[in-house]
Structure to design on (343 residues):
């Protein structure tokens, strides 16, 4: 931890603004309580996190005080990111801390999180935090120098990939894909985080955490690492929130004509193009939009609930009010509330 603090101090002297995404609250709580034997219930993990968050921030404060650096704590859950107002409030708080020269330390709020509202891992939490404040760079530290052409632990011919311009199926396969047992924090989760960041226009770097002092070289493009370049056509701030921060709670399946209109014409999604609705959701929810081959092509905020969409699917917009007795507009998902994926 001290090496990280020392490196942050160096970066601050270089006039950089730094946000630290930390973890370890549950482990810190377990250690402070002298490793008690506990049931495996979620509430006991939340209890450990509650105790550990205090000890963890105390340790960070003690170390940063050596360099006369002030810190502030931000605890985040997925619900904070899903809700637009809370998302903007978190953003404002981070900017205020940075403005005052305070280093924000972000952690997932494990004391109240359950699986439904967890971000899930610190790689994605770091990427989402970077998107939140429109960071120049997000750096993920791991036990490797970056992404390799193979597993360097078993393949002596594996070579470090220094630059990734686009995250395609080949890159995902190299990282182990979503079906491997790499687990939370593995390379596969880092590639997912890189996709989140780069699509929003934020550069992401994977580097070794063995010697945090080398981060200065990494930032200056002299160190060994993998740099994921930001998209040349990043989504706008609000669409970035829809694309990366919100959790999809249902799916809308559309016909080929509607898919073509979304992909080539930048159109809104009309009820007439909807074939099937999956999931139960309310108006304003984030949904996935899939084509007839079950391929995800977009995410968006729906203007109608799942029950309402089931009633107006395949119908012309002029029939909405007659069918429902009211109307929230002619479209199911407006183009301003829609983000194409896998372009």
């Amino acid at each position: 931890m001290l090496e990280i603090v020392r490196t942050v101090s160096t970066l601050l002297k270089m006039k950089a603004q730094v946000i630290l995404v930390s973890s370890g609250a549950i482990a810190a709580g377990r250690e402070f309580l002298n490793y008690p034997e506990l049931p495996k219930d979620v509430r006991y993990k939340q209890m450990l996190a509650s105790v550990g968050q205090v000890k963890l921030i105390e340790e960070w404060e003690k170390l940063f005080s050596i360099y006369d650096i002030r810190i502030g704590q931000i605890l985040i859950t997925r619900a904070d990111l899903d809700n637009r107002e809370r998302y903007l409030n978190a953003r404002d708080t981070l900017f205020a801390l940075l403005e005052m020269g305070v280093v924000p330390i972000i952690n997932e709020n494990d004391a109240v999180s359950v699986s439904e509202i967890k971000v899930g891992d610190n790689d994605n939490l770091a990427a989402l935090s970077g998107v939140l404040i429109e960071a120049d760079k997000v750096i993920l530290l791991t036990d490797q120098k970056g992404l390799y052409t193979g597993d360097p632990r078993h393949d002596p011919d594996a070579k470090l990939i220094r630059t990734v311009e686009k995250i395609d199926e080949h890159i995902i396969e190299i990282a182990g894909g979503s079906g491997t047992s790499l687990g939370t924090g593995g390379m596969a989760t880092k590639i997912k985080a890189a996709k989140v960041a780069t699509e929003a226009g934020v550069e992401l770097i994977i580097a070794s955490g063995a010697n945090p002092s080398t981060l200065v070289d990494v930032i200056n493009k002299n160190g060994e690492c993998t740099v994921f370049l930001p998209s040349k056509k990043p989504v706008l701030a609000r669409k970035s929130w829809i694309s990366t921060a919100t959790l999809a709670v249902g799916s809308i399946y559309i016909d080929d004509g509607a898919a073509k209109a979304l992909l080539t014409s930048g159109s809104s999604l009309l009820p007439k193009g909807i074939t099937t609705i999956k999931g139960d959701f309310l108006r304003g929810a984030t949904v996935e939009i899939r084509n007839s081959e079950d391929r995800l092509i977009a995410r968006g905020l729906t203007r109608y609930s799942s029950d309402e969409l089931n009633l107006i699917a395949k119908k012309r917009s002029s029939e909405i009010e007659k069918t429902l007795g009211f109307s929230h507009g002619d479209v199911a998902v407006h183009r301003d509330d829609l983000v194409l994926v896998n372009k």
About this structure: The chain is about 40% helix and 15% strand. The radius of gyration is 22 Å. The chain has two domains: 2-239, 248-340. Residues 42-65 form the longest helix (24 residues).
